[in-house]
């Protein structure tokens, strides 16, 4: 299965590790652009003040839409962030919306967070892995 990995870039290291595990299990993986860079630095776009600029100049939102369109599923890597358990940020939520509209499977590594858009996430009917990648069908 071709799986696009989504999540906050602060989790780049974890996304790479998850990608390697899924590749070893026979899946084809797509990681966010610059994952290696951010994993090495241990930071996200927001921390270097280039988030919106980088997204515009690199056309990251449309680029990831195309990757999702050409995949079988997405996996949202949702760990705790900003004091929110199982955080799903704006970009990941947007990518989940793309996947939903395109009738792709949506996997969440951890349960749905308690956030303002929790109902919308529930409505997309993601498959909750509870941290176990072996639950990917």
Describe this structure in words.
The protein is of the alpha/beta class. The protein has one domain (2-135): Rossmann fold (3-Layer(aba) Sandwich), CATH 3.40.50. The chain is 40% helix and 15% strand. It contains 6 helices and 5 strands, in the order E-H-E-H-H-H-E-H-E-H-E. It has a 5-stranded parallel sheet, with helices on both faces. Helix 1 (12-24) links the parallel strand 1 (2-7) and strand 2 (28-30). Helix 4 (60-69) packs parallel to helix 5. It is globular and about 30 Å long. The protein starts with a strand and ends in a 9-residue tail after the last strand. 30% of the residues are buried.
What is the end-to-end distance? 9 Å
Structural class: alpha/beta
Which strand order does the major sheet show? 2-1-3-4-5
Could you list the spans in which at least 5 consecutive residues all have pLDDT below 50?
Answer: none
* Name of the top-level CATH class: Alpha Beta
- Roughly what is the average pLDDT, rounded to an integer? 91
Record field, number of beta strands: 5
| Number of structural domains | 1
How large a portion of the residues is in β-strands, by DSSP E? 5-15%
Named CATH architecture: 3-Layer(aba) Sandwich
In short:
This protein is an alpha/beta fold and 137 residues long. The protein has helices spanning 12-24, 35-41, 51-57, 60-69, 90-101, 118-123; strands at residues 2-7, 28-30, 73-77, 105-108, 127-128.
